[in-house]
Write a structure and sequence with these properties.
Helix content is about 20%, strand content about 30%. It is built from 2 helices and 3 strands. The chain is globular, with a radius of gyration of 12 Å.
């Protein structure tokens, strides 16, 4: 995810608020959709302008199940 709402969206999905020491590090997170855990994966945050897009970026690394990806999206 890229843009000004990416960190808020990540918090809504994982309940995690990344602090400055956690930027650019893979953090374990449970990903929840509608209050239910749908996957466990990695959360990586990049603050602007130190990302590929120049914006705030959140990367979620999840299992490749079509069901899980569809639920998260």
């Amino acid at each position: 995810m890229s843009g000004p709402l990416s960190f808020a969206t990540a918090k809504a999905l994982t309940g995690r608020t990344l602090n400055e020491a956690e930027y650019r590090k893979a953090i374990y997170a449970e990903i929840r959709v509608r209050g239910r855990v749908v996957d466990q994966g990695l959360l990586i945050g990049y603050r602007a302008p130190h990302s590929h897009t120049g914006e705030d970026v959140i990367e979620l690394q999840v299992h490749g199940s079509p069901f899980v990806v569809t639920e998260i999206l």
